[in-house]
Amino acid sequence: PATQLADVGVIGMAVMGSSLARNMAHKGYATAIFNRTFAKTQEVIDNHGSEGTFIASEKIEDFVASLERPRRIVIMVQAGKGTDAVIDQLIPLLEAGDIIVDGGNSFYEDTIRREVKVREAGLHFVGCGISGGEVGALEGPSMMPGGTREAYESMGPILEKISAQYEGEPCCTYIGTDGAGHFVKMVHNGIEYADMQFIGEAYTLLKAAGLSNEQMADVFAEWNTGDLDSYLIEITSEVLRQVDARTGKALVDVIVDAAGMKGTGTWTVQSALKLGVPVNAISEAVFARAISSSPELREHAQSALEGPDGSLSVDDVKAFTDDIRQALWASKVVAYAQGLDEIRIAGQEYGWEIDVAAVAKIWRDGCIIRAKLLDRISNEYAANNLVTLLEAPSIKAELAKGQDAWRRVVTTAITAGVPVPGFSSSLAYYDQVRAPRLNASLTQGLRDYFGAHTYRRIDAEGAFHTLWSGDK
Ligand code: ATR
C-alpha cells in the first residue's frame, strides 16, 4: 500500500521546532518530524499526535525518505554548530531542487556562507527569521524568509499559511536572497532592545515621580489604547502587576536588576558599524543592558560618584506622565527609523532589494515588536520614497508636535540624575540629522592639523590641506 508522504518536515523537536511542527500540522500539512534524540520526537507524538498528521522518524534517512519531492525541510536546532551539523547530514541525502530552510536565529553572514554551500550541492537554502517566541511558533509567528525566488515559490505558501495574519494578510513575505531574511530578523531584535529600553526609562521616570507599580501598570494599560498600542506595552502592564508568589511583593522588585542578552542586539550594532549606519538609539539599548550587567563597575561607581539621587518632585503627575508618553513614542519612532535605515542600506550593499514597506507590514503581528505604529510605518514607506522614516508626512508632523514634551522629559531626567540614554540619544539623533551644520568642519580641521588628512571646502572642489602654524 502506498504510504502517505509528508508535505513538509521539521528537524529539531525542542521548544521552537515542536511548536512550529504542530502549527504546520494544525494547518493541515502532513508534517515529518525528526530530532537527534528520538525521545523528544516521541514526546511530540505522545502529547500532540492527535492534533494533525505527523510522520515521525528515528533516523534522518527515514525522515528524508518520508518527504514529498521537492523536499521542504525546516531546521529548528540550536543556532551555530547545530545548524551546520544538520546541514552536513542532509546534503548527501537530498536531491536537486530540494529546499533546506534554516528557521533558527542565525547570524546573516553564516546564512550567506551556508547558502553558497547548499547551492553548490544543487539544493535551495532559505534563511528564515522567525519571531514570536513559543506561542508565535505555535499560533502564527512573523516570518522573514531569504533565499531564491524559486525556493520561495515552493516554500512560501506553507510559510504564509502558518504565519500570523494581520487583517487577512500573512505576516510573511519574500525578503531577498541569501542572508536577507536573517538580517531583517536581526534588526527586528535590535529594535526590540530599543523598545524595551524606552519602556524601562519610562518606568524609571514614573517610579521616580512616585507612582506605585499598580499605578504604573494602569498608565501602561492606558497607553496601550492609543498611539503606543503594542505587545510590549501591553505585557509591561502585566509584568508590573505580577505578584511574587514567594514574598507577596511585586515581582519586578525582587528580580535582579541585570539584563541578559543572547547577542542579536549586539549583531545589529556591529553590522550597523560595518555599514556605517548610525543606530545610536539601538546601541544605547545594548550598552544599557551591558551596564546593568556590570556589577563591579556599578558597585565602584555607586560609592565613588556624586550627583542628584534620581528622585523627582513633580507637581502635575498627569502632565508629566503624558510628556513621558510622547517622549517614548518619539524615541520609538527614531529607533524604528534607524533600524529600517540599516535594512535599507544593507539591502543596497548586499543587493537584496528589500522592500522596507513590506518588512514593516510583516511585523504588524506575530512578532515581539508588533505595534499599531507598524501599520502606519508600512503605509508611509509604501506611499512615499523615504530616505528616513522621520520625514514621513504623518510622522514628522507628530514629532513636531511632541518634541517639546520629549525635550522636557530629557531635561527633567538629566537635572534629577535619572539616566535616560535611550530618550536622550534618540533626541540627539533627531537634532543631529536636522541640523544644517554639525561640528564636523572642526573635526576635519583637527584631522588635517595632526594628520594631514585633508578636508573639502564649501566653495571649491577637491581636497585641501593647510600649512598649520604647528607644522614644522
Ligand atoms: P529551543 O527551540 O528550545 O530554543 P535550541 O536550544 O535552540 O532549542 O535547540 C535545541 C535543539 O537543537 C534540540 O532539538 C537539539 O537536539 P537534541 O534534542 O538531540 O539535543 C538540537 N541540536 C543541537 N545541536 C545539535 C546537533 N549538533 N545536531 C543535531 N541537533 C542538534
From TrEMBL:
- The EC code for this enzyme is 1.1.1.44
Active site at: 185 (proton acceptor), 192 (proton donor)
Q: Where is the signal peptide?
A: none
Give all residue intervals belonging to the 6-phosphogluconate dehydrogenase C-terminal domain.
181-469
Question: Which top-level group of life is the source organism from?
Answer: Bacteria
The answer to keyword Ubl conjugation applying to this record is no
Q: Which positions are annotated as binding substrate?
A: 105, 131-133, 188-189, 193, 262, 289, 447, 453
An example Gene Ontology biological process: D-gluconate metabolic process
Group of enzyme by EC: oxidoreductase
Where is NADP(+) bound in this sequence?
A: 12-17, 35-37, 77-79, 105
This protein's pathway: Carbohydrate degradation; pentose phosphate pathway; D-ribulose 5-phosphate from D-glucose 6-phosphate (oxidative stage): step 3/3
Q: Name the keywords, alphabetized.
A: Gluconate utilization, NADP, Oxidoreductase, Pentose shunt
Q: Which family does it belong to?
A: Belongs to the 6-phosphogluconate dehydrogenase family.
Q: How does it assemble?
A: Homodimer.
> Function, please?
Catalyzes the oxidative decarboxylation of 6-phosphogluconate to ribulose 5-phosphate and CO(2), with concomitant reduction of NADP to NADPH.
Q: What protein name applies here?
A: 6-phosphogluconate dehydrogenase, decarboxylating
